[in-house]
Design goal:
By secondary structure, the protein is mainly alpha-helical. The chain contains 22 helices and eight strands. Helices cover 68% and strands 5% of the residues. It starts with 5 loop residues before the first helix and ends in a 10-residue tail after the last helix. This is Cytochrome bd quinol oxidase subunit.
């Protein structure tokens, strides 16, 4: 609550949270269907085509609601956080525009696949199912490109040295690599710039490459939206005397200068690849898809396995056993991937480029705070995983609490306020470790079930383990949400790390409490309707224990 704008952030949490819960099934179920169809072509067993049909049916059900909630999320971004698009819309357009085509492909393929299932040959189904998961993965990657940039902008130079354990705030870090056009650079006093820890890194044909402290960047973004001109800006302190005396230059809006610098920077990196060059892009895509696969696997496992508890028809039980064993093994594989590969890469990116967030994850050295890392003595493991050596130093949150307030305080030199002194909230320590503990528990559970399958005892699994199937599916969703919460809350107070804080981006039309409540109720109703639809069109037909005909 102390970070401000709680009602507006609450609206985003509800909207994006519901959408993410649904979206994961669109990322995972069609991929599972594709694998089932490949097994069908290998074995010629029609049960695998039946399994694929059920998974495609589930995809079609959740996609309809997922598309609607996704539209609301994008509309909410425009209306609730309008300045984000104003600031980064120029280079955000390519992945967002590309995502539209991904969405069109999803709509065409998923509904062609479902409504045309009985008229399609197995090979045609396989091709369409391939695009049914490639479309959402492609769409997700485009959306994640924007979020990854908000987490770690391209060209960010971090502010922590894990080898020495030193924070580099005194040297102006973290910094953003920007290209200052020659027309602007020629007006600046290089000596004054260097005294403010702006580092000249090289030149291009039309500009100067500079590492600029994010405190200065954030201040200029604030001035841009506040309507400052150069004679009101901190920039007047680094302009040459000849530029200061030019009345025409003095009246130039800061927004024009910032736009010119960012345009030059984006061209330097490549206008189409700028967002994709964020160090967070590849790990985020891997981790997001992994979350979708994991949630889908455990949910399918719960559905097929729970039906086994009451099935009577012997032939239908054979079909369910195949689907259940497939879901169990699939879930074990993807959760290992999610934890040991995708999750690891995500953690490394956070540790190297967002050390304040990583410090909050660990919660070390905070008086009166029960840190999960300290409680479980995970320090050596975290050092090895994050930095590759036991001699590394983990960032200490307690140290930040006493020194962080000086970061961004430009007033001694420039006489102006600086960046927000808020640190990421310590609640992310609990969210992060909840995700880890839940993930380990799910992995152990999937491993136990896989053990029964490996020893050909799938039809004799004790009912105790089967009763845990639904809780495990819920736990998979909770684990995903905890990871998402740690990721987003850990970026506070930044909206775009190193560029824009909450105060820079918030709408002036703040939603009232009743509006937030109405919005939340609407999403609850939508979610309940989706649950009923899944029950009505997937669970109820399965109770008849009649196998679908398979066309060849």
């Amino acid at each position: 609550m102390d970070y401000g704008s709680w009602s507006t952030r609450g609206m985003s949490i509800v909207g994006i949270g519901i959408h993410w819960g649904i979206l994961q099934y669109v990322l995972g179920l069609p991929f599972m269907a594709f694998i089932a169809e490949l097994i069908y072509f290998k074995t010629k067993d029609p049960d695998w085509m039946r399994i694929a049909k059920v998974l495609v049916k589930g995809t079609a059900l959740v996609f309809a609601v997922g598309a609607a909630t996704g539209t609301l999320v994008e509309f909410g971004l425009i209306t609730v956080w309008p300045r984000v698009l104003t600031a980064v819309g120029k280079w955000l357009y390519f992945p967002m525009y590309a995502e539209v085509f991904a969405f069109i492909m999803e709509v065409l393929v998923i509904y062609m696949l479902w409504y045309g299932w009985d008229k399609l040959s197995p090979k045609a189904r396989l091709v369409l199912t391939f695009f049914a998961f490639v479309g959402p993965w492609y769409s997700g990657a485009m959306i994640v490109a924007a979020n990854a940039y908000m987490q770690i902008p391209t060209g960010l130079i971090p502010d922590y040295n894990a080898t020495t354990g030193q924070w580099l705030y005194a040297e102006g870090y973290p910094k953003l690599t920007l290209v200052i056009p020659n027309s602007i650079a020629s007006l600046l006093n290089v000596t004054t710039l260097q005294s403010l820890h702006v580092q000249i890194m090289g030149t291009t044909s039309d500009g100067v490459i500079a590492a600029v402290p994010v405190t200065i960047v954030d201040r200029l973004v604030y001035e841009s939206f506040a309507g400052y001109t150069l004679n009101q800006s901190i920039l007047k302190l680094v302009l040459k005397p000849s530029a200061l005396n030019d009345p025409g230059l003095a009246a130039v809006p800061v927004l024009n200068v910032v736009n010119s610098i960012m345009d030059s920077t984006v061209r330097y990196y490549n206008i189409y690849l700028y967002l994709f060059e964020s160090p967070d892009f590849a790990p985020s895509v891997m981790h997001s898809i992994g979350a979708g696969l994991t949630v889908s696997g455990f949910t399918a496992m719960a559905g097929f396995g729970t039906r086994l508890l009451s099935v009577k028809d012997k032939r239908y039980k054979e079909y369910l056993l195949k689907a259940f064993k497939f879901s169990v093994v699939f879930s074990l594989i993807v959760i290992i991937y999610q934890g040991l590969i995708a999750g690891h890469e995500m953690g490394v990116a956070v540790a190297h480029y967002q050390p304040e967030k990583f410090a909050a994850f660990e919660g070390l050295g905070v008086p009166g705070f029960t840190s999960i890392a300290e409680l479980l003595h995970t320090g050596p493991i975290e050092k090895l995983l994050a930095y590759g050596t036991l001699s590394a130093h983990l960032p200490n949150y307690g140290y930040l609490m006493t020194h962080y307030s000086g970061w961004g305080n430009l007033s001694p030199t420039l006489g102006v306020p600086g960046t927000s002194t808020y640190l990421p909230p310590l609640i992310v320590d609990y969210a992060y470790y909840a995700m880890v503990v839940f993930g380990i528990a799910l992995g152990v559970y999937a491993l136990i079930l896989t053990g029964y399958i490996a020893f050909h005892r799938a039809d004799r699994i004790p009912r105790f383990w089967l009763y845990l199937l639904v809780p495990a599916a819920v736990l998979a969703q909770l684990s995903s949400y905890m990871g998402w919460a740690a990721r987003e809350m850990g970026r506070l107070p930044w909206v775009v790390y190193g560029m824009m804080t909450l105060s820079d981006t918030i709408t002036v039309n703040v939603p009232p409490a009743w509006g937030e409540a109405l919005f939340s109720v609407f999403y609850i109703v939508i979610g309940a309707a989706l649950v009923y639809a899944v029950y009505r069109f997937l669970w109820v037909p399965s109770k008849r224990e009649v196998l679908d005909e398979v066309t060849y």
